[in-house]
């Protein structure tokens, strides 16, 4: 009998401690959980067999899957559309378009740090995040990485791609993706105008996220950048149907968040510490940030109430 997959997301640097905070490592876990979250080599395409997701009595089980996370063709499991309730795209589709789109999806799991797409490679698939978190980045001329965004359940990866991916993406945590070929998605959008309109709205939202980062990287100081980013994460989490009082789930490494905000790591750490000391945020766990005073964050970011 196949055991259910145990989801236990482990973050990196604590948001509520200083620069020398100890990283929470998978070795602290036991049994299958520890092995599932062991850190694979950073930024390489895994040759291990990923697992697909099958539904048995409402529980997601492991099964044979594709050989790489970028090629999810070997789908053998059944699909349960309730897992996509957090997708703004599918919520905007009428029943027939939704059913056709869900039928085209192939579900597969990727391990923490596995490469999903690589910049400059052919954009064969569009991926929808079902569970977990992905990090998107571009390589600068100096060979360093610039983090350009984070994707959460319901978000799409590759919707804005042309012939080739313009960025790279890897899994921040163990994640579940639902993927569809670009050609098949194009055919579906031609058949179902409602799906085409929903995709347009989704792509527009993805473009808005890119504009958000331009805002962050503009003339804002460190405190304003952190406040703006937290409000944006909060807005996106609530758009996925999460409770307004639920803490933000931020499983990314602090160094990656610093890259996203174009800040040095010590500067980011001081900004978080100041917000926590002022009672504006709280950090109930290593991967969570609770917004205690949204009005104060809005004043700091110069944004209107969200």
From TrEMBL:
InterPro entries associated with the record: cNMP-bd_dom, cNMP-bd_dom_sf, Env_Response_Regulators, HTH_CRP, RmlC-like_jellyroll, WH-like_DNA-bd_sf, WH_DNA-bd_sf
Listed PANTHER family: CRP FAMILY TRANSCRIPTIONAL REGULATORY PROTEIN, FUMARATE AND NITRATE REDUCTION REGULATORY PROTEIN
Compositionally biased tracts (Basic and acidic residues): 70-80
Membrane-spanning parts: none
Domain Cyclic nucleotide-binding: residue ranges: 89-173
Organism domain of life: Bacteria
GO cellular component: cytosol
Gene Ontology MF, one: DNA binding
HTH crp-type domain mapped to chain residues: 220-295
Residues covered by region (Disordered): 61-80
Name assigned to this protein: Crp/Fnr family transcriptional regulator
Pfam family, one: cNMP_binding
UniProt KW keywords: DNA-binding, Transcription, Transcription regulation
């Amino acid at each position: 009998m196949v055991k259910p997959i145990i989801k236990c997301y482990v973050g990196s640097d604590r948001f509520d401690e200083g620069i020398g905070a100890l990283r929470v490592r998978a070795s602290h876990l036991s049994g299958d959980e520890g092995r599932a979250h062991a850190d694979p080599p950073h930024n390489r395409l895994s040759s291990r067999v990923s697992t697909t997701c099958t539904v048995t009595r409402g529980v997601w089980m492991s099964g044979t899957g594709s050989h790489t996370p970028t090629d999810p063709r070997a789908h053998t499991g059944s699909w349960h559309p309730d897992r996509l309730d957090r997708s703004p795209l599918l919520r905007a589709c009428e029943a027939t378009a939704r059913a056709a789109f869900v039928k085209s999806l192939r579900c597969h799991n990727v391990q923490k740090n596995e490469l999903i797409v690589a910049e400059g490679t052919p954009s064969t698939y569009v991926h929808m995040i079902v569970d977990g978190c992905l990090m998107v980045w571009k390589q600068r001329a100096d060979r360093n990485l610039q983090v350009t965004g984070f994707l959460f359940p319901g978000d799409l990866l590759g919707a804005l791609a042309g012939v080739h991916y313009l960025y790279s993406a890897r899994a921040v945590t163990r994640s579940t993706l639902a993927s569809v070929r670009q050609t098949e998605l194009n055919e579906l959008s031609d058949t179902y105008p409602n799906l085409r309109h929903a995709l347009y709205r989704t792509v527009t939202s993805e473009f808005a996220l890119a504009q958000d980062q331009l805002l962050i990287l503009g003339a804002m100081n460190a405190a304003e950048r952190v406040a703006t980013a937290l409000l944006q994460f909060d807005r996106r989490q609530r758009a996925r149907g999460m409770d307004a009082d639920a803490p933000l789930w931020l499983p990314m490494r602090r160094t990656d968040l610093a890259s996203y905000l174009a800040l040095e790591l010590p500067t980011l750490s001081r900004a978080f510490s100041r917000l926590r000391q002022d009672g504006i945020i709280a950090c109930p766990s290593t991967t969570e940030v609770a917004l205690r005073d949204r009005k104060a964050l809005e004043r700091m970011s110069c944004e209107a109430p969200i």
